[in-house]
Amino acid sequence: MEPIKVHNGKTVALMNNNIDTDQIIPKVFLKRIEKTGFGAFVFDEWRFLKNGDPNPDFPLNDADRQEATILVTGDNFGCGSSREHAAWALKDYRFRVIIAGSYSDIFYMNSLKNGLLLIELPQEQRDVLAQLPADETIQIDLPNQVVRTSAAEYPFAIDPTWKHKLENGIDDITETMAYADQIDAYEAKWDNIYA
């Protein structure tokens, strides 16, 4: 998992509340077995018109927002089903950070485990971020837990365990492999018993 310490990026705003995982990645695209390739289908039903053309009214299709790596959004983001594909799709699309008012619990955990930094900020601060010019870069400073714009700083909270994992790129497999010696010793003990 790629570590996140200080991320400098541009924003795109999708200020709807209650965006569910089926809107993030429609179920018709859940046939892949890899974690990659889902970014092309993120928000598919909103990003594209029925004829397949990009929807000119959808924020992610704005020509000035094509470099955005930070999604600013509404409350209860990632609600609905527990599909981990939603986190895979957002990350594969190019997002590293999502700033919302709140998240569904399962989506929140899936995202953290896949290296997405999820930040909760109040409505008035997200409204300011949603209005930033397309060419403005903001800074997400995870060690100091602050979102910095050219005009303001917004502190955010994060569980210390997840902060450590994100800063150091530690996923579940990496964490387990830190105990490889103990695991090998345990397996060797049982191999000897049943040999």
Please summarize what this structure is.
This protein is 32% helix and 17% strand. With 195 residues, it is of the alpha/beta class. It has a single domain, classed as Aconitase, domain 4 (Alpha-Beta Barrel).
The global form is globular
The total beta strand count reads 7
Strand content: 15-25%
Task: State the name of the first-level CATH class.
Answer: Alpha Beta
CATH topology label: Aconitase, domain 4
Unreliable runs:
none
The end-to-end span amounts to 38 Å
Tell me the Rg in angstroms: 19 Å
The number of distinct structural domains comes to 1
Could you state the order of secondary-structure elements as H and E? EHHEHEHEHEEEHHH
CATH architecture: Alpha-Beta Barrel
Q: Order of strands across the biggest sheet? A: 4-3-2-1-5-6-7
CATH superfamily: Aconitase, domain 4
Organism: Trichococcus ilyis
Pathway: Amino-acid biosynthesis; L-leucine biosynthesis; L-leucine from 3-methyl-2-oxobutanoate: step 2/4
Subunit structure: Heterodimer of LeuC and LeuD.
Pfam families: Aconitase_C
